[in-house]
Design brief:
It is built from six helices and four strands, in the order H-H-E-E-E-E-H-H-H-H. By secondary structure, the chain is α+β, with helices and mostly antiparallel strands. A four-stranded antiparallel beta sheet has the order 1-2-3-4. The longest helix is centred in the first third of the chain and has 29 residues, at about 40-70. The protein is extended and about 105 Å long. It starts with a helix and ends in a 57-residue tail after the last helix.
């Protein structure tokens, strides 16, 4: 999108189109209209089933079209060798449902490893969750008292089916990754050559320091020693040549 405003306009157009589809789904779910025995929960169930199918189809289509842009070959991220790509289905939990991505996968015979060129673009890793879902899982694991409580909360509130064992595994893996990143940044800082070069502005800016003290300055009574004796014009003392009252 060219700008944030253009994206917001496009999202509004999509919402209007989806609202029209909602009316079609309502007529398909209840051709003669919902009877007096149909509850709001029944209506929600029909709408949610349609929305999950909509999310699945939209995400799979968008990621598939994006994946086709990588072509038939991609460079290995380690050695740079061009390697052929193949498409492998990959299930992923996304907001609003599940989706199966047609993920391009390359194999480098020189490095003897697989690589996934689309994952950095989508900002996903090897876990089967979108970034938003993964963030919700980790957040719930951190604010609840145990992993089994987090499992129930995610199922009831977020409609995310995940076991407490899987939550434990995810939090451990992500925590270890964050610890390694912290230790790496610390090691990089400690191993910098000395003396460290400070950042210097190319063009020193013109600066002026202005401050105001709202407190009170202590003064001395007359004949009680050296110091400021006059409570007036204290801010100008030593700047304008002394106090006008000569104290």
């Amino acid at each position: 999108m060219a700008s944030k405003e253009a994206r917001e306009r496009k999202l509004k157009e999509i919402q209007e189109i989806a609202a029209g589809w909602g009316k079609i789904i309502a007529r398909e779910a209840f051709p003669d209209g919902p009877g007096l025995d149909v509850t709001l929960a029944d209506m929600e169930e029909s709408a949610i089933a349609a929305s999950r199918a909509l999310v699945k189809g939209a995400v799979e289509t968008m990621t598939g079209v994006q994946g086709e842009q990588f072509g038939e070959e991609a460079p290995c991220p380690t050695c740079g060798k061009m390697c052929p790509l193949r498409v492998v289905p990959r299930p992923v939990v996304v907001r609003g449902g599940d989706a199966t991505l047609n993920e391009p996968v390359g194999h480098c015979t020189r490095c003897r490893r697989d690589f996934f060129p689309q994952r950095p673009v989508l900002k996903i890793d090897g876990h089967g969750y979108s970034p938003t879902i993964l963030q919700r899982i980790l957040h719930m694991a951190g604010v609840t008292s145990s992993f089994d409580v987090a499992e129930v909360a995610l199922q009831v509130v977020g409609e995310i089916a995940i076991s407490d064992r899987q939550i434990n595994k995810l939090t451990t893996e992500i925590g270890e990754e964050m610890a390694r990143d912290r230790e790496g940044r610390t090691r990089h800082y400690v191993e910098q050559p000395l003396p460290r070069q400070t950042t210097v502005a190319e063009v020193p800016p013109d600066l002026a320091a202005v401050f105001c003290d709202g407190g009170r300055m202590r003064t001395r009574q007359p004949n009680q020693g050296r110091g400021i004796l006059c409570p007036r014009n204290q801010a100008l003392w030593g700047v304008a040549g002394g106090c006008p009252c000569r104290s």
